[in-house]
Amino acid sequence: MRIIRDVAAVRAAVDGAGRVGLVPTMGAFHEGHLSLIRAARESCDLVVVWLFVNPTQFNEASDLANYPRDEERDAALAAECGTDILFAPPVDQVYPAGFATTVSVSGIADVLEGAHRPGHFTGVATVVAKMLNMVGSDVAYFGAKDAQQVAVVRRMVADLDIPVTIDVLPIVREPDGLAMSSRNVRLSADERRRAAALHRGLAAARDAAAAGEQDAGILASIVADELERESITAEYVAVLDPETFEPVASVERPTLIALAARVGPVRLVDNMEVTP
């Protein structure tokens, strides 16, 4: 595996390489990241893993400062999974002096995470657009945990005619259901135990919908009540159309329930599709 840090070198490395798969990450690898790398390895001739903690998508300086970083460990894990290139550019390669262009996606990026984290999706869309242009991959692999991010990226790719396929893989969870996240390492033992309520709430709402409950408000309350049992207050619990992210009043087709909540100092997101 090669570690590359500049744009010209990564473009030269992928030139003529056949089908190129790109796995975007901010490091601190867990099984969710590794499942994306393995999927890319199975279907691509060349696998590029992007490793860059993007400062423009953080709303809190403390969150950026505390975000876990361990490039040596990440590189070893990426190599074990069959990565060909670890592309880990410094900040000045991504945002050089005089950088003055951003990408904003309206509508779908303005709700939920967009409303609670102003500017977040502009940072995401800008860095993903740059990443796709830098690498020129045929397919990019994302995890379903950040469902709104995936929807924003898909909208941007379609609107800007970027020639890449977006492949989304299922959420990878811990044995108790907590969605794997790089931020989980910041949870204390008690916070980690309480955080499992996020999945329990979503699963309870899923089961209620499968049993015939269609009222979106009731399903959202089922999730919120489970969180409250662990003294967790949700920033939002939303029942949504999975493509447009517009709220729905009744679950009449496959629907997404998305949530965000703070457990101690750590902000976690999760989602689950429910079917009537």
Name the assembly state: single chain
Q: For this structure, what is the CATH homologous superfamily of the largest domain?
A: HUPs
H/E element order = EHEHEHHEHHHEHEHHHEEE
Number of helices in the DSSP assignment = 11
Question: How large, in whole angstroms, is the Cα Rg?
Answer: 19 Å
> Mind summarizing the main beta sheet?
6 strands, parallel
- CATH third-level topology of the largest domain: Rossmann fold
Strand content: 15-25%
The helix/strand class is alpha/beta
Average of per-residue pLDDT values: 97
Widest sheet: strand ordering: 1-4-3-2-5-6
Overall strand count: 9
Overview of the structural elements:
The protein has helices at 7-14, 31-43, 61-66, 71-80, 91-94, 113-116, 120-135, 147-159, 189-195, 197-210, 216-228, and strands spanning 2-4, 20-25, 46-51, 85-87, 139-143, 165-169, 234-240, 255-263, 266-274. With 276 residues, it is of the alpha/beta class. It has 2 domains: 2-169, Rossmann fold (3-Layer(aba) Sandwich), CATH 3.40.50.620; 182-274, Pantoate-beta-alanine ligase, C-terminal domain (Pantoate--beta-alanine Ligase, Chain: A,domain 2, 2-Layer Sandwich), CATH 3.30.1300.10. A 6-stranded parallel sheet has the order 1-4-3-2-5-6, sandwiched between helices. Strands 7-8-9 form a 3-stranded antiparallel sheet. Helix 2 (31-43) links the parallel strand 2 and strand 3 (46-51). The longest helix has 16 residues, at 120-135.
Question: Key terms for this structure?
Answer:
six-stranded parallel sheet, Rossmann fold, 276 residues, single chain, Pantoate--beta-alanine Ligase, Chain: A,domain 2, alpha/beta, 2 domains, globular, 39% helix, three-stranded antiparallel sheet, 19% strand
